[in-house]
Amino acid sequence: MFLYEKYKNQGFEILAFPCNQFAGQEPGSNEEINDTVCTIFKAEFPIFDKIDVNGKNAAPVYKFLKSEKGGYFGDAIKWNFTKFLVNKEGKVVERYAPTTSPLKIEKDIENLLGSS
């Protein structure tokens, strides 16, 4: 949330897409997920309805993201919290592993926003 608060007024946006394709980590309804993220984690950014990110029913946005930046072992999303950095023109600039802390990508965000 820190990054969002720090950069949202400079054109930075976070879009969250819950997914239950990874060991059933998001079993709740869209309303339950939204309540949890907004109430417990105080998220102020958009939380979309639950989607598939892999397979034949993958959401179009994830088909696009994966086609632009594949992972180390192919383009499939391996786990929740895979992150993509997209510039203002819609080009996927970078893909980050689920284990990459959002704070570790701050410099990349600053470079895109021209605020470094």
UniProtKB/TrEMBL annotation:
The keyword Repeat does not apply. GO terms for molecular function: peroxidase activity. Keywords: Oxidoreductase, Peroxidase. Pfam families: GSHPx (PF00255). InterPro entries: Glutathione_peroxidase (IPR000889), GPX_CS (IPR029760), Thioredoxin-like_sf (IPR036249). SUPFAM superfamilies: Thioredoxin-like. GO terms for cellular component: cytosol. GO terms for biological process: response to oxidative stress. Belongs to the glutathione peroxidase family. This is Glutathione peroxidase. It comes from Salix purpurea (Purple osier willow).
